[in-house]
Every structure is written in structure tokens, then in C-alpha cells.
């Protein structure tokens, strides 16, 4: 405890020294912010590097000459240039000659050049002659201008090659299929009837066995007609009983309606079950009275004697009555001063509780208001664009919503003030939890309003607006959830209870004083004297009857305690029936009543209506079955043989030529089929952890990097030695000085983490899926990094700083920040899992894109272990090697270069 106490004293002394020195204070603030600038500038610079590739100049020139195909002139190069005019992915520059193209690429005016030679179309169509020559595109590039630009330009050339291939494939296949298409439709127009008959015959023959089965079912159904007619007669008889079923259903519905009253009456058994301990206790008390009745007799005797003594005291009070009446007159003057206040509180109570309820109910509508406004905004975004008129409408919607939020926040703040005043008047803390919840709601509403006000309706894009809407929805749901968790009835009940107690206290005091004034104490004492005297007479009468009462108490004790187990078991069984069986009965009764009320009328109508239809159609059905049965037995065998012979003939003809397949192939949709040949596969992309832009994706790397840079920077400026006055040096140990300065370094690291993460989110607008966890993870990383750097520098001085810088250099290359570690060398792949920076970046990526907790916990555990190991190592080793570190530093100072 002493170590901790001294450490905290030194830590406090550190910050007192800082704030007393304006230059030191300014330097500390600068060191908190400067590392964040490193991250922010890099993130902003990389925000969307591929958004402006349309400005990257790529020269294009086509020397292509038209070629003949199917008596038509085809110039693929010209078509390519037309398409490139519509392509905005790169900055295509259409030059007038090959010479101009080559010169522009060599000079650096263009990053790359694409040239289509004279025979491009001819070579592309060479497959039609049988002498295939692959066409070539000449692609030249100036790679010394920039490291990334050649890759982008190369991607453009590859895309152009794919575009030409697709266009060629689509054109060739479209032409061939169109010719076949014309032949197929001509053949089909002359063979429609043949195809239909052929299909019908083959289909029927194929399904002969199934048709045979149906014919047998027709015969079987015909044989069951007498049975069906008998069942129909029974169904008609059942209809006659429907009135009785209706009456029974009405009774069932009535019983279900009375079920709440039955349950309420049966609930008495639960009350009895709750009273079992009291019943058992009453039995014990009755047994105790039975056992101690002798003491009851003694108590009765003593009571009579005490009553007689009380009579003497009353007579003494009568003598002091004048002085008591004088005191009552003085108290009455004090009570009258509070009468008006009590009346006003009583009148204001209903309006106070009503206003509380209305205010809290209104806050819960924020989520629904957001949903309504979001729906209107989504209508504006239906075409993913915002016209000037739609932006004006958006601006009006946002202004109205912001005004509504301001009013609701003001109402909540006013409610907080009112409840605080009521609580202070009551002199307790009963309303403090409710006040704290309301304060949180007010804070959230204020944050939501600020977010809404920050939206620039004139400049925001559709994608950004959609992302902001998701943030607003989440915040609004949080506000409604928090407001909904406040028990409105509980709030009003608490306020009502506090005010009622105040009012009752005032009224009670005044009432007692008024009553005391109005009482005729002389007459009261006289009547009391007579009452006491009468009581003495009654007690003496009961004293004479005590032997008979004693026998009755004994009999009651034997009856109750002798059957206590039977009584308790009976009550418990009744309560079990109420809790377990009665709800099941109630549910089943409710289902039955719902069926009678909702489903039964329709079923009854269906039964009566269906039976009427069946009775009407039964003669026709019977006649139809007779005819069908006659057809099956007499004509069906000959029909079946004829169908089979025709089908066999058709199949023999189709052994050589499948006319249906030929027609189908010839009738292909030229456009659809050519499109399929050109692009037979489509890619469906699914984003598991979507991140809005490249800047947001790079944020974890630069945030972690800035925290390490911040730790190294601060360790380079600030000293790890703790300066103490000569008189104080013996009071504090080396470990205490080390621990105190360590806390100062940690505070700086945490401040740097808060500034950079909050700046990422609020200043740059970085897309972070889990902002809260992003801040939390950054604080943990800052703690681990600052602990490592501080311990290294404290233990090894300038050598420790060098180690920290080496770790920084290795982290940039081996941390897998901007490029996958798999594309780096074997050495960097080896050190990647050994670098704390790797796990820091991985942890921040989880909060940026969406947390996968198994990965997050692994990184958290590693960082926590690193922090603990370095902390313990520093505390344990510092006192032992501190002198050696100073000697090493003094040696380096002799060079007059290092400090």
C-alpha cells in the first residue's frame, strides 16, 4: 500500500509541475496531437486514390482499316474508339498519329499508349477464311514516372483487350445464330400441326400405364357409388344436429368470458398459500398461549392493578389541564401558516404527474420519427441520385427533424430540473436513478441533433447519405430503448408518493393541532376516568371467566395443531392446481372459444353449402361415372392399341433426325445466345465486411502506426528519470519513481489514442462499424505500446530508443498494414506474428469492418500479456540496472553528440 501511495504522490507531482510551466503544458498538448496529424494526413491522402484515375492520361491511336465480312465493311478499331469515348475509367487521349503517341509516352506526357495497327480488323476476322492470325495491340508504358500508375494503365490495357474479345465474340456468334434463326422459324411455320400431333401421341403413349391406373380408379370409384351415397345420407343427418352444437359453442364462449372472474376467485388459494407460515405461526402461538395460560391469568391480574394505578394518574392530569391548554393555543398559530401551501401542492399534483408522463412518452417517438423521415429520404434516393429539388426537400426534412430534436431535448432538460427540485424538497435520493437515465437520454438526443446538423444537403452523395441514415437509425433506436426502459408509471408513482408525503405531513400537523384545540380535555378526562373505571369492572368480570376460556383455548390448540399437516397439504395442492393446471385449462378453453367465434361459423357454412352442392350434383356425377365406366370397359383397349402403334412409328422416324431439337436449335434468340457466348459467366460479389473507402480501410494501419510514433516521440522528448529535491530523495524508492513516471507516460499514450480515434471518426468521417470498440481497442494498444517504449527507454536509455525505432521500421514492412504479408519476403512473413504492431492493426481492423470476436480476443490477449510482461519486467529490473544504464549513457555523452 505504501508503494502505491507514494507512486500516486509522485504521479500527482509530475502533472503539477507540468501545469505550473506554460511551456511544458503547451509541449505536452502538442505531443498529444502531433502523432494524430501523422495518421490524419496519411488517411486523407489515401481516402480514395482510384476515384481520380479518369485524370490519368493514356494515349490511344487506331490505324485500323475496314475489313469485309458477309458483304459488309467491319472496322473494329473505330468501334473500340467509340466505346473508349464513353469509358471514364482512365483519361483516354485520342492522338492523331503513332508518332505523336510514341513521343508523348517517352516524354512523360502520357503514362502509357495503346496502338491498333492497320490489319487489326482483318486479323480479327481471319478465322472465317481458315487462316487464323491473332491481331495485336501495341502497348507502350513509361514506368519511371510513378510506381502505381503503370499498374493502373496496364489494367486499362487488359480491360481494353477483354472488351475487344467480348465484342468480337458477340458479333460473330450473333451473325451465325441469326442465320440459323431465320431457317428455324421458316421450318417451324410449316410443321406446327405435325409437331403438336406428334407430341400428343408420344406423350399419351408414354403415360399409358398412368392412364390405365386412372381408368381403374374410375371403375373403382363407380363401384363405391352406393357407399358414397350412404355416407352422404349420414352427413345430411349430421346437419340436423348443428343447432345443438351451436348452443354448446355459445356456452363454451360464455364460460371463456367468465374465466378471468373464476381465476380471480380461485386466486384466494395463492393468498392462503402465502399465509401458510402465518397459519403455522398462529398454531405455534395458540400452543404457546395454551401452555402459558397461567401467565395470562397473572397478566390479567396485573392489568387490573395497573388500570387502577392509571385511574390515579388521570386524576393527576386533570389538575394540570390549564397549563396544557395554554401550550395548545401557541402551537395552533404555527400550524395555520402552512395551510395555504398544502392546498396548492394538492391542486398541482395531477398536472405534475401528467406532464412527466407526456414528456417521457414523447421521447419514445424519436425512433418512429426517424423511420418516417428515413422513408421519405429513401424515396428521394430511389434512383441513387439527388436533384436540386430533392436536395431542397432533403434540407427542409433535416431542418424540421433538427428542430423537433431540440424541442424534445429542451423538454427532457426541463423534466430533469423539475424532478431534481422535487427530490431536493423531499430531502432524499429516490429520484436520482431516473434523473441519471433522463440525463443520458438528453445527451444522446444532443449528439443525434449535432449529427443531423452536420449533414450538408447541398454536397452529400447518395452513398454517404445512406451511411448517415444507418448511423441516425442506430442512435434513435438507442434513445427509444433507453427512454422505454424508464418506468413512466414508476416515475409518476415516486413523484406522487413524495408530494403526498409532504402534503400529508403538513395536513397531519395542522389537523392534530386543530383537533387538540377543539377537544374539551376536561370532559375528555372525566369520560376517560369513567371509561377506565368501567374497564376495571370488565377486566374483573373476565377474570372470573378465565377458567372456561382456558379450556376453550386448549381445545382449539388440539384441533389446529393436530391437523396442521393436512391443512397445509390441502392448500399447497390447491395452489399447484391453480398455477399448473388452471393455465392449461384456460389456454385450451381460449382456443376452443376462439375456434367457435372465428372458425366455426365459416366451417358451418362450408358444411351446409358443400352438402347442398353435393346433393344437387350427385345425380350428374353418378351418370358421368356410368358413362366413363362403360368407355373404360368397352372402348379403351382398342384406343390404347392404336396410340401405341402411332407412337412406335414416330419413334422410328426420329432415330435419324430429332426434328424438335433441330427446330429448337435453329430458333435460338440471336441476341441472347450471342451475349451468352461473349460472357458465359457472371461474377456475383458478396462483401463480408464492407468498408466505405480506401482511407477508412487504411485507418487501422495508420492509427496503430501513429500510436507507436507518438510513444517513441514522447520518449525522445521526455525523460524517464524522476527529478526530486535533495530533501525528498530518501523518501521514495527507485521503483516508486519508475512507476510514477510510467503512469505519466501511460496518460500521454491514452490521450494520443483518444485524440486520433475521435478525430478519425468526427473530423475525417472515417467509416467505422463499431466506434465504441474502436476507441476502446485504441486505448488498449496505446497502453501496450507506451508501456513497451517506456520500459525499453527507462532500462536501456538511448539504446532502448534505438530498439523502439527498429521495431517501428520492422512494423511498417512486416506488420501487414497496407499489403498482405503473404506478398512480402520470407523474413517479413516470419516476424509478422512476433510484432505487437501486427496484432494492434488486426484488432483495429475488427472494429473498422465488423468484429469477429475469436480474432479480436486473440489480439486483445496478446496485447494484454505484452503490457503485463513489460510492466512487471520494468518494475522488477529498474532498481538493479538503473545505475548501469546511467554509466552507459555517460559514456555516450563523452562523444559530445548524444545527450
TrEMBL record:
The chain crosses the membrane at residues 21-41, 701-724, 745-766, 772-796, 803-821, 856-878. It comes from Enterococcus wangshanyuanii. Pfam families: ABC2_membrane_3 (PF12698). The gene is pip. This is Phage infection protein. Keywords: Membrane, Transmembrane, Transmembrane helix. Signal peptide: none annotated. It is a multi-pass membrane protein. It comes from the Bacteria. Residues 27-170, 679-875 form the ABC-2 type transporter transmembrane domain. Its main location: membrane. The keyword Cell membrane does not apply. It is found in: Membrane.
Amino acid at each position: 500500500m505504501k508503494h502505491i501511495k507514494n507512486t500516486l504522490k509522485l504521479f500527482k507531482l509530475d502533472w503539477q509541475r507540468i501545469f505550473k510551466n506554460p511551456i511544458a503544458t503547451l509541449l505536452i498538448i502538442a505531443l498529444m496531437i502531433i502523432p494524430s496529424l501523422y495518421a490524419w494526413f496519411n488517411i486523407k491522402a489515401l481516402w480514395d486514390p482510384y476515384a481520380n484515375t479518369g485524370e490519368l492520361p493514356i494515349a490511344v491511336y487506331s490505324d485500323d482499316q475496314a475489313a469485309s465480312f458477309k458483304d459488309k465493311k467491319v472496322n473494329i478499331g473505330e468501334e473500340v474508339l467509340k466505346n473508349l469515348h464513353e469509358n471514364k475509367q482512365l483519361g483516354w487521349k485520342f492522338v492523331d498519329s503513332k508518332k505523336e503517341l510514341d513521343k508523348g509516352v517517352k516524354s512523360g506526357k502520357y503514362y502509357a499508349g495503346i496502338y491498333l495497327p492497320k490489319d487489326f480488323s482483318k486479323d480479327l476476322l481471319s478465322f472465317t477464311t481458315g487462316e487464323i492470325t491473332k491481331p495485336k495491340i501495341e502497348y507502350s508504358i513509361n514506368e519511371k514516372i510513378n510506381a502505381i500508375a503503370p499498374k493502373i494503365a496496364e489494367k486499362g490495357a487488359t480491360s481494353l483487350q477483354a472488351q475487344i474479345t467480348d465484342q468480337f465474340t458477340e458479333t460473330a456468334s450473333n451473325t451465325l445464330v441469326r442465320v440459323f434463326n431465320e431457317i428455324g422459324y421458316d421450318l417451324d411455320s410449316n410443321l406446327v400441326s405435325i409437331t403438336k400431333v406428334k407430341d400428343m401421341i408420344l406423350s399419351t403413349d408414354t403415360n399409358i400405364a398412368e392412364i390405365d391406373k386412372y381408368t381403374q380408379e374410375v371403375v373403382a370409384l363407380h363401384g363405391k357409388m352406393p357407399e358414397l351415397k350412404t355416407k352422404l345420407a349420414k352427413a345430411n343427418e349430421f346437419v340436423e344436429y348443428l343447432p345443438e352444437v351451436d348452443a354448446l359453442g355459445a356456452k363454451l364462449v360464455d364460460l371463456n368470458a367468465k374465466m378471468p372472474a373464476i381465476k380471480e376467485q380461485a386466486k384466494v388459494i395463492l393468498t392462503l398459500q402465502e399465509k401458510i407460515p402465518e397459519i403455522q405461526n398462529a398454531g405455534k402461538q395458540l400452543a404457546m398461549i395454551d401452555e402459558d395460560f397461567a401467565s395470562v391469568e397473572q397478566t390479567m391480574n396485573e392489568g387490573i392493578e395497573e388500570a387502577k394505578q392509571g385511574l390515579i394518574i388521570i386524576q393527576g392530569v386533570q389538575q394540570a389541564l390549564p397549563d396544557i391548554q395554554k401550550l395548545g393555543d401557541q402551537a395552533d398559530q404555527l400550524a395555520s401558516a402552512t395551510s395555504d401551501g398544502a392546498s396548492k401542492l394538492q391542486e398541482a399534483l395531477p398536472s405534475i404527474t401528467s406532464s412527466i408522463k407526456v414528456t417521457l412518452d414523447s421521447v419514445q417517438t424519436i425512433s418512429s420519427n426517424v423511420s418516417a423521415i428515413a422513408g421519405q429520404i429513401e424515396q428521394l434516393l430511389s434512383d441513387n441520385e439527388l436533384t436540386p429539388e430533392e436536395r431542397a426537400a432533403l434540407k427542409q426534412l433535416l431542418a424540421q427533424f433538427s428542430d423537433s430534436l431540440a424541442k424534445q431535448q429542451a423538454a427532457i432538460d426541463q423534466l430533469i430540473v423539475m424532478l431534481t427540485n422535487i427530490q431536493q424538497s423531499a430531502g432524499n435520493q429516490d429520484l436520482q436513478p431516473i434523473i441519471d437515465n433522463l440525463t443520458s437520454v438528453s445527451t444522446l438526443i444532443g449528439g443525434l441533433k449535432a449529427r443531423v446538423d452536420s449533414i450538408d444537403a447541398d454536397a452529400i452523395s447518395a452513398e454517404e447519405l445512406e451511411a448517415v441514415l444507418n448511423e441516425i437509425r442506430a442512435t434513435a433506436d438507442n434513445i427509444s430503448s433507453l427512454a422505454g426502459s424508464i418506468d413512466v408509471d414508476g416515475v409518476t408513482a415516486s413523484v406522487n408518493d413524495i408530494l403526498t408525503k409532504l402534503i400529508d405531513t403538513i395536513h397531519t400537523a395542522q389537523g392534530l393541532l386543530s383537533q387538540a384545540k377543539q377537544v374539551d380535555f376536561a370532559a375528555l378526562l372525566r369520560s376517560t376516568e369513567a371509561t377506565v373505571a368501567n374497564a376495571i369492572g370488565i377486566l374483573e368480570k373476565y377474570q372470573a371467566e378465565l377458567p372456561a376460556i382456558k379450556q376453550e383455548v386448549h381445545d382449539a390448540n388440539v384441533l389446529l395443531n393436530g391437523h396442521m399437516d393436512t391443512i397445509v397439504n390441502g392448500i399447497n395442492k390447491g395452489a399447484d392446481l391453480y398455477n399448473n393446471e388452471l393455465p392449461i385449462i384456460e389456454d385450451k378453453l381460449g382456443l376452443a372459444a376462439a375456434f367457435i367465434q372465428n372458425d366455426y361459423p365459416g366451417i358451418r357454412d362450408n358444411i351446409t353449402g358443400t352438402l347442398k352442392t353435393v346433393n344437387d350434383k350427385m345425380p350428374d356425377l353418378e351418370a358421368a361415372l356410368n358413362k366413363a365406366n362403360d368407355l373404360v370397359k368397352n372402348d379403351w383397349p382398342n384406343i390404347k392399341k392404336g396410340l401405341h402403334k402411332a407412337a412406335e412409328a414416330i419413334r422410328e422416324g426420329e432415330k435419324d433426325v430429332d426434328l424438335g431439337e433441330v427446330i429448337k436449335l435453329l430458333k435460338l434468340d440471336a441476341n441472347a445466345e450471342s451475349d451468352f457466348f461473349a460472357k458465359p459467366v457472371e461474377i456475383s460479389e458478396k462483401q463480408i465486411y464492407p468498408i466505405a473507402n480506401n482511407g477508412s480501410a487504411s485507418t487501422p494501419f495508420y492509427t496503430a502506426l501513429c500510436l507507436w510514433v507518438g510513444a517513441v516521440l514522447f520518449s525522445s522528448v521526455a525523460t524517464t528519470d524522476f527529478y526530486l529535491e535533495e530533501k525528498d530523495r530518501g523518501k521514495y524508492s527507485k521503483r516508486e519513481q519508475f512507476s510514477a513516471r510510467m503512469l505519466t507516460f501511460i496518460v500521454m499514450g491514452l490521450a494520443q489514442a483518444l485524440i486520433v480515434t475521435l478525430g478519425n471518426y468526427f473530423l475525417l468521417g472515417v467509416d467505422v462499424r463499431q466506434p465504441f470498440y474502436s476507441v476502446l481497442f485504441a486505448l488498449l494498444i496505446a497502453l501496450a505500446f507506451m508501456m513497451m517504449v517506456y520500459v525499453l527507454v527507462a532500462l536501456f536509455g538511448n539504446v532502448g530508443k534505438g530498439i523502439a525505432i527498429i521495431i517501428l521500421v520492422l512494423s511498417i514492412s512486416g506488420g501487414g498494414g497496407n499489403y498482405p504479408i503473404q506478398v512480402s519476403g520470407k523474413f517479413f512473413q516470419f516476424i509478422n506474428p512476433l510484432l505487437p504492431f501486427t496484432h494492434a492493426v488486426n484488432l483495429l481492423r475488427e472494429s473498422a469492418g465488423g468484429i469477429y470476436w475469436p480474432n479480436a480476443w486473440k489480439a486483445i490477449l496478446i496485447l494484454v500479456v505484452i503490457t503485463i510482461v513489460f510492466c512487471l519486467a520494468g518494475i522488477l529490473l529498474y532498481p538493479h540496472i538503473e545505475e548501469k544504464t546511467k554509466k552507459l549513457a555517460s559514456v555516450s555523452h563523452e562523444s559530445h553528440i548524444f545527450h
